[in-house]
Amino acid sequence: MTEAIQRAKQIGLDIQDHRLSAITETMLQDANLVLVMESGQKEALHIEFPFFREKILLLSEAAKGIPYDILDPLGNPSNADVVAEICELIRAGFNNICAVALR
Prior knowledge:
Rossmann fold, 5 helices, two-stranded parallel ribbon, 6% strand, mainly alpha, globular, single chain
């Protein structure tokens, strides 16, 4: 987690108190939108929580309308391009993401 904290600090985020937790049905009931990075994550959540399929999207899908995987940058310290891609998707697609969350 230290690497994630350092990467987040580089882009102005403080995630030091963030803790991983399993997604629950209650979380999905309370959420307008759940964004995942990889199609395998999306598929697994669709299988486990079929009633919430419409809330679970890839980040790329919500931001650009084009579904594609974004690999986890944490396993590869030289993969700063992935962090930049995530930031750019969120910046450029922020209005689209909000619109999807509000539908």
